[in-house]
């Protein structure tokens, strides 16, 4: 992940991440363990759902996005199936950058399809997690 190596807290240009969504996290703790930093970032992003909600429609409207749930919705976006994260210890901060492909957060689209666990799988399924194996 080249963007994390730059130690600049801000989204990479769309050209640098061609077709990928991106979540960023920063902490002033330069000595934090990489796994702990990645976990903190993930929890912060996922908690946007609990704190701000997306509504029963489960659709990313401008109003929903403006609640500040974009990190959560990118993580939960059904059509994003690739994930890469990097943790970089920089001068004065530690950064976490996660990129998702294909990018999510498409306005007026469903965040994910509602249904019984594994009901939409074309192949096998991990029943314990309720997720399709891809």
Automatic annotation (TrEMBL):
Origin superkingdom: Eukaryota
Gene3D superfamilies: CAP
UniProt GO cellular component terms: extracellular region
Ranges of residues in domain SCP: 1-108
Listed SUPFAM superfamilies: PR-1-like
InterPro entries named in the record: Allrgn_V5/Tpx1_CS, CAP_dom, CAP_sf, CRISP-related
Name listed for the protein in its UniProt record: SCP-like protein
Source organism of this protein record: Oesophagostomum dentatum (Nodular worm)
Lineage, highest ranks first: Eukaryota, Metazoa, Ecdysozoa, Nematoda, Chromadorea
């Amino acid at each position: 992940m080249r963007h994390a190596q730059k130690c600049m807290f801000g989204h990479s240009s769309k050209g640098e991440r061609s077709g990928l969504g991106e979540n960023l996290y920063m902490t002033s703790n330069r000595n934090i363990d990489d796994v702990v930093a990645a976990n903190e970032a993930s929890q912060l992003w996922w908690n946007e759902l609990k704190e701000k909600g997306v509504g029963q429609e489960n659709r990313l409207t401008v109003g929903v996005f403006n609640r500040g749930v974009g990190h959560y919705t990118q993580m939960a976006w059904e059509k994003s199936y690739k994930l890469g994260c990097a943790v970089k210890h920089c001068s004065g901060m530690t950064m976490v950058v996660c990129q998702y492909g294909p990018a999510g957060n498409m306005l007026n689209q469903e965040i994910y399809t509602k249904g019984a666990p594994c009901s939409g799988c074309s192949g096998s399924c991990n029943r314990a997690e309720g997720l399709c194996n891809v």
